[in-house]
Fold this protein.
Amino acid sequence: MSTHAQRSPSGASGWLECAGWASDPKGSKYADEGTAAHELAALSLERGTDPRDFLGQQIQAGENTFTVDDEMVLAVGDYVSYIRDVVRGTNGALMVEQRLSIEAITGEPGAHGTSDAVILAPGELIIADLKYGRGVPVEADGNPQLQIYALAAMDEFSLAHDFTSVRMVIHQPRLGAVSEWVQPVEELEEFRATIKKRIAIHDANPEARNPGTKQCQWCAAKATCSALARKVQDEVGADFDDLTSGEQVENVPAMLPDVNLASAMKAADLIESWLKAVRAEVESRLLAGQPVPGFKLVQGKKGNRKWTNEQEAEAALKAMRVKHEQMYDYSVISPTTAEKLAKAEVIGPRQWPKLQALITQADGKPSVAPETDKRPALVMSAVADDFQDVTSPLDTCDLA
């Protein structure tokens, strides 16, 4: 992606909704780790090799250096295998880390985006995006980042290829998640028109702000956005000063009505995201020596103790004749580590099924999700149903 692209595909969910959306120029270690994983995937696909061939090698990404370990090899290997299977299954032509012009889509001169994988198949354009993080699953359905990549690829390759549909894929190997969405070309062109309308609205009123969970999630300006602060206050339903004044409020129900509770729950992610950003902004300013009224930096809790040199500590303990079983902590490897050894063929194909028979996995705990979530709803019985009726016959007798 061009560093000059203010309206980048990766930030589309933000800038399409709010004129004030801003990307984070600082990045993060997690983002750099994703960049390293993308580089490993690109090398493997371009050279026709296995990610394991790069095991132990170092990849520089941003200000961080990452060593290709078993976890990265396995995760990237899943993505690489998926892409190769799609290419074979469609007889398509693969382009890796394809740089695409988005100038005609966003109107920004010279702007480009880079798609992880573009596959030109008979009658079908396929856009695939690798997401290496361990965050929440991302759906391909209606994903504006992939749609912009798809539009840019159509602009570049439609003269030589007759596409009738576009398949958009988000592959999250560390979550075991693959999301696919197919959209007809006609509908994708309607999205192009939507982009132009949104941009025209934002350009006409660049100071307008439209806070919301989706657009604020990755916005670098949310900590200091007054519109978001007002929205959070409105969603909470009370003035912060009133909440902390200590004064008793009359005629307030003991419990929130169901409708109010549901509204508050819908706003929970946005509020939590805003609070996290505010804390980070205050800490950043104090670390930079900028005063924040009412707050200061203090020394936090000390970290865990550790040996300055494990080899010297081990030698000292041996010289003290400390027993072997007292010197070392041992634990059997986890099923995840064992599976890695099986994929690396350290554990043989006949041995692995025997270990699988010894593995158990607890069901996930019930968690709250919006009704739009694709997972089926759990059917829960009312709490009262779980208790036996122990009412005494005397309780129901008419003693009058």
